[in-house]
Amino acid sequence: MIGRHAFVSFAAPDQLDVCLSVCQSIALDNGAFSAWRSGKEVDWNDYFAWAKSLARNPHVDFAVIPDVIDGDEMDNERLIAQWHQNFHSEYKDFGCPVWHMHESEAKLNYLSRAYYRIAIGSSAEYSQVGSSAWHERMNWAMKVICEDGQPRCKIHMLRRLDGL
To answer: Is 72 helix (H, G, I), strand (E, B) or coil?
Structure first.
């Protein structure tokens, strides 16, 4: 991992120190996917404290804002609001919200205009990464967030390395 980039999960932070010492950069994952798969709850206040303790580290690029994978847009808007209550303007570009592929065009359009970086999460009928439905939805999503062939913001694909 020397000189590479890493994604460290709040659900399994045991590699954090190694990644901080050898990686070029890291990003912080909120652990929502691991919690969702295991049926566990995440204490978002603990995640906020962990992310805040690392926010000024020069190796840490961004942190994924908490999300509810199969939740509705209001569930996720509440978590984005909680993030902003904990991270003020000094951390403006540190938080990366997740657009879930089952969410609306309006939500994707808003996030891609309001944030420096967004994450895209495979969910609901688009949860199988690489399926025909997933590819169709990704093609549609890119048309929503691109202008003149370029995305309006940086994009982090969650689970994109799963078998592709």
So the answer is: coil
Q: What is the pLDDT of residues 83-106, one digit of tens each?
A: 999 987 778 899 999 999 999 999
Question: What is the β-pairing status of strands 150-151 and 98-100?
Answer: unpaired
What DSSP character marks residue 59? T
Residue whose tokens read 């990686």 = 23
How far apart are alpha carbons 69 and 102 in whole angstroms? 10
pTM for the complete prediction? 0.92
% of the chain surpassing 90 pLDDT: 77
Q: At what angle do helices 44-54 and 73-86 cross, to 10 degrees?
A: 50
Residue 160 has pLDDT above 70, yes or no: no
Spell out the SS3 assignment of 102-156: CCCHHHHHHHHHHCCEEEEECCHHHCCCCCHHHHHHHHHHHHHHEECCEECCEEE
pLDDT at residue number 161: 58
Q: Hunting for tokens 């890291």 — which residue is that?
A: 26
151 forms bridges with which residues in the sheet? 146
* 8 A C-beta contact, residue 48 and residue 30: no
Provide the 3-class DSSP secondary structure of residue 159. Answer: coil
